[in-house]
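>> Question from a student workshop board

For tomorrow's exercise we were told to take the sequence and the ligand below, predict the bound structure, and bring the output to class. My setup keeps failing. Could a helper post the expected result so I can at least see what it should look like? The ligand is S-adenosylmethionine.
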Amino acid sequence: MSHSGYYDQDAVGDGVRDGRHREIIGGLWDEIGDLQMRFLIAQGMRPGHRLLDVGCGSLRLGARAVAYLDADRYFGSDLNESLIRAGYEQELDEAGRAKTPWSHFGVNADFSFDFLNQPMDVAIAQSVFTHLPLNHLRRCLHNLAPHMARGGRFFATYFECLDGQDLFAPLAQPGGGITTYDYQDPYHYRLSDLVWTVDPTLWAFEPIGDWDHPRGQRMACFRRL
Ligand SMILES: C[S@@+](CC[C@H](N)C(=O)[O-])C[C@H]1O[C@@H](n2cnc3c(N)ncnc32)[C@H](O)[C@@H]1O
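>> Workshop helper replied:
Here is what the output should look like for this input. Compare the format with yours to find the bug.
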């Protein structure tokens, strides 16, 4: 059984060949791309920082981040090579590709970051763990820790089930008309579930919450100790 439609790499590849690489990663290309950039800059990202985009898809953030960051500062990982390739070839211009070698991308489904050979200052996973059971976030944090600079921050979005809401019932999220579940994609979690993913010797958990996401996703921050 696959966790989400993103694991059907043939179907994703067919969609990319049909020119749908923006829709497949959720559409709202400009709105959510700009939102991520505004958020990261407000959080202190600067052109000299190294940014890892976990589950980078077709570079909705990447196209903007590559333009903003100095050369050799943007990195991405995803399980679908077809999405990364579409983003690299169609969303980056020649100058962007010159700033970002193909070796800056890792393709795998197990959150392996061994393709990184420099410490990251900032990392983000936007709308990635909303599609996955929570042990994936735990694994991501475990694997990412050795590749983050001390004090570096990893931001991850999630759908929240508030205390007092029924964890086991379908939950209508505020704003975007999305219904989430405890056991299937798209998933919701309690804040206390996120705490469970954290090894407190490696990461400090710093909840953020609302960040103006149009579909009601919340933001969590994990700071490398
Ligand atoms: C909704 S899209 C978001 C893409 C990107 N973060 C953005 O905001 O534009 C979710 C992405 O997560 C990727 N993904 C899903 N499961 C993954 C896994 N286990 N490892 C790496 N990437 C994964 C999908 O292939 C897809 O590109």
